[in-house]
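Bumping my old thread because nobody answered last time. Still need a sequence for this structure:
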């Protein structure tokens, strides 16, 4: 079954405990937490302290997506804060294999992400070291962007790469996913779908998750 990872970047932080409780009860599989540094992407979000505080609100796996330069300097802190999956960008470090191995040594699952313009084939030499591959279907940095149609081809390419390597690796897709393209993304091979405004941008996030589940049934 396809896993759902609501992105709290789109949540109302004035009601964050209520909104997290709602998606938890509705059956979210992961909570997706976008970490941005204003350098790798043109936006700022939060650091380990906020993740640690959010950790008190939910038992769900925290899927922390580090959109930051030099992620190797910060993965330990995010793991200590409660991250269960730590994903960094291939474009942000020159030692991807080393960092994947280090994240695993911390007891977390190790993920690697690629931007829309990055060829999937660059993941070939590290696919066996990854627990998760995240294909961005928008340029990272802001919620509410439109899905880039070419991303469907990249999802198919990533699915083929994972399957050809017999890798024990989930394929996650993030960016601009909603009712219009959800089935296409899943059909292309996604195991995990990140959705932000399609869930938290609605009056009832729990009902939104129920509707999404019905679409995938």
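Sorry it took so long. Here it is:
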């Amino acid at each position: 079954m396809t896993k759902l990872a609501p992105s709290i970047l789109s949540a109302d932080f004035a009601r964050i405990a209520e909104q997290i409780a709602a998606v938890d009860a509705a059956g979210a599989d992961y909570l997706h937490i976008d970490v941005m540094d204003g350098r790798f992407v043109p936006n700022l979000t939060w650091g380990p302290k906020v993740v640690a505080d959010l950790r008190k609100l939910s038992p769900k796996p925290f899927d922390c997506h580090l959109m930051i330069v030099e992620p190797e300097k910060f993965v330990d802190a995010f793991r200590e804060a409660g991250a269960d999956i730590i994903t960094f960008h291939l474009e942000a470090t020159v030692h991807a294999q080393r960092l994947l191995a280090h994240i695993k040594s911390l007891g977390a699952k190790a993920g690697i992400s690629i931007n829309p313009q990055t060829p999937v084939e660059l993941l070939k030499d590290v696919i066996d070291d990854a627990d998760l591959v995240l294909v961005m279907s928008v340029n990272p940095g802001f919620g509410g962007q439109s899905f880039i149609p070419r991303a469907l081809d990249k999802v198919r390419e990533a699915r083929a790469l994972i399957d050809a390597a017999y890798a024990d690796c989930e394929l996650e897709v993030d960016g601009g996913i909603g009712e219009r393209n959800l089935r296409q993304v899943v059909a292309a091979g996604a195991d995990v779908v990140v959705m932000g405004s399609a869930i938290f941008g609605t009056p009832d996030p729990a009902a939104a998750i129920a509707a999404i589940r019905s679409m995938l049934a």
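Strands lie at 3-6, 31-36, 62-67, 85-89, 109-114, 132-136, 170-174, 192-195. Let me know if any region looks off to you.
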